[in-house]
Design goal:
single chain; 7-stranded antiparallel beta sheet; Pnp Oxidase, Chain A; alpha+beta
Length: about 150
């Protein structure tokens, strides 16, 4: 079994711990905003270690939209590279846990449609897009068919 390496960021590590320790009943919102977050468990592309990342909850039917904004920083968050290397994830949405497979959205029309869903769920995404010169990666996570 791969080793779990917690985030070096205190607030991320603490949120992940609370989310998991409570079975998804706590730690499932972005700090004091009340906006829902999901927890994505993925595999490190360099280390092979287990990583856990809270992301804004953006739904598209049974699918989830994962936005690599990193607050409009000039570089992608590490999880983007992890999903590009290994698209299989576990996604926790409050008390439910799903095995999912991700893919990066490259089609411009689909990307634009999903971007609108993301901004509707979390308006600051639009500010983040204006703040950075990079194209913010958008992924879709879909349930793994058993």
């Amino acid at each position: 079994m791969a080793e779990y390496i917690p985030s070096p960021r205190d607030w991320v590590r603490e949120q992940v711990e609370l989310y998991e320790k409570s079975g998804g009943t706590q730690g499932n919102t972005l700090r004091d905003t009340g906006l829902p977050v999901i927890l994505v468990t993925h595999t490190g592309n360099k280390t092979g270690a287990i990583r856990k990342t809270p992301l804004m909850r953006v739904k598209d039917g049974a699918r989830y939209v994962l936005v690599g904004s990193q607050g409009g920083a000039p570089s992608n968050p590490e999880w983007v590279y992890n999903l590009r290397a290994n698209p299989n994830i576990e996604l926790r949405d409050r008390t439910e846990v799903f095995a999912m497979k991700t893919h990066e959205v490259k089609d411009a029309a689909e990307r634009a449609r999903l971007w609108q869903l993301a901004v509707a769920a979390f308006a600051p995404y639009e500010d983040y897009r204006k703040k950075t010169a990079r194209e913010i990666p958008v992924f879709v996570a879909e349930p793994v068919r058993q």
